[in-house]
Write a structure and sequence with these properties.
The structure is a homodimer.
Chain A: H1 11-35, H2 38-45, H3 49-55, H4 59-79, H5 87-104, H6 106-117, H7 124-147, H8 156-172, H9 174-180, H10 187-203
The structure holds a DNA duplex.
Chain lengths: ~200, ~200
DNA sequence: GGCAATTTTTACCATTTGGTAAAGACACGA
DNA sequence: TCGTGTCTTTACCAAATGGTAAAAATTGCC
């Protein structure tokens, strides 16, 4: 039984847990937590439902596992914001990385968005212990940059919110963006250029 | 039977349909379409489940009714964007109105966000017939303003996206914002000031 | 007050869904 | 090859859920 924090997982265990998590990411991000069913996940993973419950204790554990895994990837671009780099370039680089993530990992973006949208019922602790300290730290970094005169002064907290909002929008509201930008062959490039302009004008001292 | 487009609705009908829709907005916005149950809606409305199904054909009809109703309210600030007004003031006013809506109508914002997040399964037609023409029209207005030199030139489509994203973020990601801004007594004011600064710097010619 | 139409309740039902028990298939080291 | 532990399937189940039928209550008009 591959339950708690037992010994090292077998090759089959690793493969199947991977299959399940990938399938679950698909299904959860498409239908939300309640909208997703174990049967859908099972079919997407190519396994039987009881077999899935052999690897995970239940639907909720799959979801939480996914969320925990995601947090790392998700915060990584913010982690790499370098206090010793060129302030404006650091911010613009961060915007770019977040925008790339919205394009390359839309399922992850939507999974996260869905969880927050419903009040973060399965993630509130993680927000406080994982996100909050990092957020405060990077706000302080940005504040220092502004005090040095390397960036125009704005509230760093709302600055970060606006970066998150504008980049993730392209993943989370894709259904809408697709309707309104129907035949634009270079949506990503257009967004990248627009956001670079916006944050450059905002932050140039 | 208060079914199709019959005669004028009775007073009871008007009241109860109102109760149901308000309760449903609560429940749907909190748990999403699949996560919401008729029992929850019934309890929130103070009516029995079969009684609810006396006024609406089913869960889906309630949801769709809500979405359709919402569209009007939702697009209103964009409708009132006046081609003959002062360009920058018009945009800033639009931002402000959207931000106020995020504060005053968070349930509506989250209902909408949840629907789009899942691919707009019950709203795609409305996006094409209602939103798209308005979006194109207002993009054209903004483009004219830019060509006249009244605004700095940026892609109007991404400009509008960034307004939507940054304002709705405060409603849709409230669970996150609340954690990160825990003891800020003036979140709304701070956001308003930040966004005014951002869009002013972006658009000032 | 009487009566038809409207509204509400009671008692159900079929399906879906998360989950379990236990038997069976399989892998792999001795 | 044999046996032990790992993995998978089959056959279920109880609860939740969207929905219905029809009786009972209520409303509103004459």
């Amino acid at each position: 039984m591959p339950d708690g924090a037992d010994k090292k997982p077998s090759r089959i265990q690793q493969r199947n847990r991977g299959l399940i998590l990938d399938a679950a990411l698909d299904v959860f991000s498409k239908h939300g937590y309640r909208g997703a069913t174990l049967d859908q996940i099972a079919e997407a993973a190519g396994l039987s439902k009881p077999n899935i419950l052999y690897y995970f204790d239940g639907k909720e554990e799959i979801h939480v596992t996914l969320l925990n895994q995601l947090m790392e990837t998700w915060l990584d671009p913010l982690v790499t914001l370098d206090p010793d780099g060129d302030p404006l370039q650091e911010i613009l680089g961060y915007v770019q990385r977040k925008l790339d993530m919205a394009r390359d990992l839309p399922r992850e973006s939507r999974l996260f968005a869905g969880e927050i949208l419903q009040g973060a019922p399965r993630m509130a602790p993680h927000l406080v212990t994982g996100l909050q300290p990092l957020f405060d730290e990077k706000c302080a970094v940005i504040r220092v940059w502004m005090e040095k005169g390397a960036l125009a002064t704005v509230d760093p907290r709302h600055l970060i919110f606006s970066i998150w909002a504008t980049t993730q929008h392209y993943a989370d509201f894709d259904a809408q963006v697709q309707v309104l930008l129907r035949d634009d062959p270079d949506r990503h490039g257009g967004a990248a250029e627009y956001l670079a302009t916006m944050f450059t004008k905002l932050l140039s001292p």
